[in-house]
Specification:
The complex is a heterodimer.
Chain A: H1 2-28, E1 48-53, H2 54-59, H3 67-75, E2 91-95, H4 96-99, E3 116-120, H5 128-132, E4 138-140, E5 146-148, H6 158-162, E6 169-170, E7 195-196, H7 202-205, H8 212-216, E8 222-226, H9 233-240, E9 243-244, E10 256-259
Parallel strand pairs in A: 1-10
Antiparallel strand pairs in A: 1-8, 2-3, 4-5, 6-7, 9-10
Chain B: H1 10-36, H2 51-64, H3 67-75, H4 85-106, H5 115-118, H6 125-153, H7 161-184, H8 197-223, H9 230-261, H10 264-274, H11 284-302, H12 304-308, H13 310-336, H14 352-383
Helix pairs in contact in B: 1-14, 2-4, 2-7, 2-8, 2-13, 3-7, 4-6, 4-14, 6-7, 6-14, 7-8, 8-9, 8-13, 9-10, 9-11, 11-13
The chains are: A alpha+beta, B mainly alpha.
Chain lengths: ~260, ~375
C-alpha cells in the first residue's frame, strides 16, 4: 500500500509539473488564426501612416482649433477625467519643445516656438509597448496598427513604461461617468484598470472610412495612407516635403510624420 | 513540522496578532482600492509605477541574497554557514511572497492575473519574471523544508534535493537579473537604460539581503536558544562590506556617464533625485539620507573593530538596509518616470491607502517569515 501511494504521488507530481510547462509549449507553438469575412469596402494597407502638416494646422485653422481632437474623443467615447494625473487622451497637443525634446534651441524660429503640435500614438514599426506586454493585450496588426485588447489587459502598465511617447493612458477609475461627449454606441467604452490609446480608427478603416481626425480636419492638415503604396497621399507628401518624426534615435520607427 | 508554528510562547502569539492587525488593515485598504481603482494611489499617467513596484524591486534583491549563504555552504562547504542557511532560504521565501503580493496589488485588473499564463508571451520580460520568481519560491521552500526535516530526523537530506540546490544558485542571480531587465530594456527611460542595471541590482541585493539576515540572526538569538554563531555573522558582514562598496561604486558610475557625457536627458533623473529639477524636489531629502546612511554603513563596516562589535554592526546593517531601500525601494523606480516623455516634471507621492496596502504586504511577508523561522528555530533547538 505504502509504496503504491508513494509511486502514485510521484507520478501525479510529474504530471503536475508537465501541466505547469504547458503554457511554455503553447507559447512556442503557432496557433491557427480564425478566419473572418472582411467588408469589401474596407480600406486595406500594408503599413498605415499619417503625415501631419503643422503649417496648414496653424496657418489656415483658427487659433485653438481642436476639431481632430473632438472628433476622435467623441467617436471613441474618450472620457474627460479632468485631472492631469488621470488624464485619458488619444490625440492631443503639446508644445514643440515637449513633443520634440532635445531638438530645441533658444533661437528656434517663431513659427515653431511654443506652437502646439498634434500628438497621437506613433503606431511604431517596432513598438516597445508590444515587446513588453505580458499578455499580448497590446499587439501589432499586419497592417502596422498597434492595437489594444481591453479584455485581455491586466493593467500592469508595463506598456506605459515602455512607450517613449507618452501615448498611453490608464483608466485609474471607471471612465464611463466621465464621457462628456455624446455617447457613440457603436464603439465600446472602457472599464477601470485597463490601458487605452489611439487605434488609428481601425474600426472605421474596416468599413471604408478614414480616421475620424483626418476626416474632421477642415484644412487637410492630416493625411492618412499606406506607406508601402508609392501612389498613396502620404508617400507623395513625404516625397515633396522635409518631415521629422518624434525621437527617431530610439529605433521604434514612428509612423507619424510632421511637416513643419 | 508545521505543527511547531502552532505552539509557542505568549509573546509569539502576541507578535502574530500584531502582524495580523496590519495584514487586516492592508486588506481593508486593498478592498477600498479594488472598489475605487488605482485612482486611490498617487500614481498617474506620467508616473505609472510607484511605491508598489519599487517595493517589489527592492525585495527581489532581499530574496536573491539567500544565495550569499547557500552558495558558500553547499558549493564551497563553508561549514560556518550551516546553521544560518535555513534562515537565508526562508528569508527568500518570505521576500518572494512580498514581491508577488506587490505585483498583484499593483494590477489594474487582478482578476485577470492568470492571463500571463493563459497567453504566455516570451517576448515580455514580465513573463520571465513570473517564471523566475515562482520558480525561486518553489526551490527555496522545497530545499529549506527538506533539509530542515532531514536535520530533525538526524539524517542527510535526500539526494534529489541536491540538483535543486545547485539550480537555486544561478536561479537567485536570474531573479534579480530578469527584474533589472524589466527596466534596462526600455527606450526613452534614460535613467533605467543602463547596461549596469542588473549588476547594480545584484550588488545592492548582496548588501541589503545579508544585512537583513544578520539583523534577523541577532533577533533570533535574542528570543530563542538558537545562535547562528559569531563566525557566520563575521563572514556575512564581510560579504555586506564588499557588496555595499561595489553597490555605491556602481551608483557613482551612473553619475560619471551622465555628467561627463553631459547629455541632458541622461542627467535629468539624477538631477531630480539629488538636487531637484525645475523646482521639483520631493525625493531630494530621501536621496541625501541615502548618501549619509551609505557613508555611515561603509565607515562602520570597513573598520574591523566596528564590524566585529555586535552593537556597531547592528547600526551598520540597519544603515545598509535603509540606504539601499531609499536608493532602490524609493528613488530608482519613480525617477525613471521623471521627467516624463514630454520632458515635463510630474511628481509622485504615495497616498495613505497605498501606504496602508504596502504595510499590509510587508506584514504578510513578516508573518510568513515569523512562522517559517519559528519552525526552523524549534527544530534547531530540538536537535541541539
Amino acid at each position: 500500500m505504502e509504496s503504491n501511494r508513494r509511486s502514485f504521488l510521484k507520478v501525479s507530481g510529474i504530471c503536475a509539473l508537465g501541466l505547469g510547462a504547458l503554457p511554455v509549449a503553447k507559447a512556442l507553438a503557432k496557433p491557427a488564426l480564425p478566419q473572418f469575412l472582411t467588408n469589401s469596402q474596407a480600406l486595406t494597407g500594408k503599413k498605415w501612416a499619417m503625415v501631419v502638416d503643422m503649417k496648414k494646422c496653424w496657418e489656415k485653422a483658427d487659433e485653438g482649433c481642436k476639431d481632430c481632437i473632438l472628433a476622435c474623443h467623441k467617436v471613441h467615447n474618450v472620457p474627460d477625467i479632468g485631472t492631469i494625473k488621470e488624464e485619458v487622451k488619444w490625440i492631443w497637443t503639446e508644445h514643440y519643445e515637449n513633443t520634440f525634446p532635445g531638438q530645441t534651441n533658444e533661437f528656434n524660429v517663431e513659427n515653431i516656438k511654443d506652437k502646439p503640435f498634434i500628438n497621437l500614438c506613433n503606431h511604431c514599426t517596432d513598438p516597445p509597448c508590444v515587446r513588453v506586454c505580458p499578455t499580448k493585450a497590446t499587439f501589432k496588426r499586419p497592417d502596422g496598427i498597434v492595437m489594444m485588447d481591453y479584455h485581455r489587459c491586466i493593467g500592469c502598465r508595463f506598456c506605459m513604461a515602455g512607450c517613449p511617447y507618452g501615448s498611453r493612458s490608464f483608466n485609474f477609475r471607471d471612465p464611463r461617468p466621465y464621457i462628456k461627449t455624446e455617447l457613440n454606441p457603436t464603439f465600446p467604452t472602457r472599464e477601470r484598470g485597463v490601458v487605452e490609446k489611439c487605434n488609428f480608427c481601425e474600426e472605421r478603416l474596416a468599413v471604408g472610412l478614414l480616421p475620424a481626425c483626418v476626416e474632421a480636419c477642415k484644412n487637410g492638415a492630416l493625411t492618412f495612407g499606406d506607406l508601402e503604396d508609392p501612389n498613396s497621399p502620404v508617400r507623395k507628401l513625404l516625397a515633396q516635403n522635409y518631415t521629422i518624426v518624434r525621437k527617431p534615435e530610439l529605433g521604434t520607427g514612428p509612423n507619424i510624420y510632421y511637416i513643419i | 513540522m508545521l505543527e511547531r508554528a502552532l505552539t509557542g510562547s505568549q509573546r509569539y502569539y502576541r507578535w502574530l496578532m500584531f502582524l495580523l492587525v496590519f495584514v487586516g488593515m492592508g486588506f481593508a485598504a486593498y478592498l477600498y482600492q479594488l472598489h475605487n481603482g488605482l485612482s486611490v494611489t498617487g500614481m498617474s499617467r506620467d508616473v505609472s509605477w510607484g511605491f508598489y513596484i519599487a517595493q517589489f524591486t527592492f525585495f527581489v534583491g532581499v530574496a536573491a541574497s539567500a544565495v550569499m549563504v547557500v552558495l558558500p555552504y553547499y558549493l564551497h562547504n563553508v561549514k560556518v554557514f550551516g546553521r544560518i542557511t535555513i534562515l537565508g532560504e526562508f528569508l527568500a521565501v518570505a521576500s518572494v511572497t512580498i514581491c508577488l503580493l506587490f505585483i498583484i496589488v499593483d494590477l489594474g485588473k487582478p482578476m485577470r492575473l492568470l492571463n500571463v499564463l493563459l497567453y504566455p508571451t516570451p517576448n515580455s520580460i514580465l513573463f520571465w519574471d513570473m517564471i523566475v520568481l515562482n520558480g525561486y519560491l518553489f526551490l527555496n521552500i522545497v530545499i529549506g523544508w527538506n533539509v530542515l526535516e532531514a536535520e530533525r530526523k538526524g539524517v542527510h537530506y535526500p539526494d534529489w534535493v541536491k540538483p535543486l540546490i545547485y539550480t537555486s544558485i544561478p536561479w537567485a542571480v536570474s531573479i534579480h537579473t530578469v527584474t533589472a531587465f524589466l527596466y534596462a530594456g526600455l527606450p526613452g527611460r534614460h535613467y533605467w537604460l543602463t547596461a549596469i542595471m542588473a549588476a547594480r541590482f545584484l550588488a545592492s541585493a548582496f548588501a541589503s539581503g545579508p544585512a537583513l539576515l544578520i539583523l534577523l540572526a541577532m533577533i533570533v538569538k535574542k528570543y530563542s536558544k538558537f545562535d547562528a554563531g559569531k563566525e557566520a555573522i563575521d563572514k556575512l558582514s564581510q560579504i555586506v562590506t564588499y557588496a555595499m562598496l561595489i553597490s555605491i561604486f556602481f551608483v557613482a558610475l551612473e553619475f560619471f556617464t551622465a555628467f561627463y557625457s553631459n547629455i541632458p536627458s541622461h542627467k535629468h533623473s539624477l538631477e531630480y533625485l539629488f538636487v531637484g529639477l525645475e523646482g521639483h524636489k520631493n525625493l531630494v531629502p530621501f536621496m541625501w539620507m541615502f548618501v549619509i546612511l551609505a557613508i555611515v554603513a561603509i565607515v562602520l563596516l570597513l573598520n574591523p573593530k566596528t564590524r566585529t562589535n555586535e552593537k556597531t554592526l547592528r547600526i551598520a546593517c540597519i544603515s545598509v538596509f535603509a540606504s539601499m531601500w531609499l536608493e532602490k525601494g524609493l528613488g530608482l523606480v519613480v525617477a525613471g518616470f521623471i521627467p516624463n516623455p514630454f520632458d515635463q516634471v510630474r511628481e509622485y507621492a504615495p497616498t495613505i491607502p497605498e501606504l496602508t496596502i504596502a504595510f499590509g504586504v510587508w506584514a504578510t511577508g513578516i508573518l510568513v517569515l515569523t512562522i517559517l523561522y519559528k519552525i526552523a528555530v524549534s527544530v534547531k533547538e530540538e536537535v541541539a
